[in-house]
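Many introductory courses stop at the sequence. We go one step further.
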Amino acid sequence: MPRRLLVIGAHSADFVWRAGGAIAVCTANGGTAEVVALSYGERGESGELWKQEGQTVENVKRIRHGEAERAAAHLGATFRCLDLGDYPLEIGAEQLLLIADVIREFAPDVVVTHTDTDPFNPDHPVAFRAVDRARGLAAGAGVSSAFPTIKPPELFLFEPHQPELCNFTPTTFVDITSVMDRKVAAMEEMQAQKYLQTYYRERADHRGNHARRASGNQAIRQAEAFQRVIPQVVTEL
């Protein structure tokens, strides 16, 4: 069955590095993927753009939107930004309900977001808490409610930049060998963070090695790692 994948990041480029391959796999298999950024990362993640003389916040947002939109297109996904601001990303009741509405309207099979801890990025844990809570609201916490709800989506966390320091333990590897070229093309759109392109190419190779060893499938060359949050329900092991 074609899957519906929703990736929610704190900043507009987060999806590319950490879940670009999984998004491309989803759409290549006939599924539908949407990327939602809570902010553009205009203050804390656009250092290269701020080196330009006369730069403004609105222009940085415009550039970042274009980069993310083109990157998502390489992966076969749509992109939108809620423009909630970054550094700090603040989520109040109004913003929480907005995120819940996004999840409810898209009705995903899978939601992917950040880990609950990141000592080097204060916005990422905020995004996790908001998405985790909004998912519960959209699904009515898995029970009938007085408002429209959706089937509870599976919840996965994508790999942070420093996994050992962010409570990240891989439970799932996605083979992205067949779509690695699409992930590379998407990463190359992110000119404001060129320094991450090499890192995440190498990380895909590292996780490919781990996926080969875990599965015995020697055809896997690149992979992405995820941590499953919601227990999997099966009829047998």
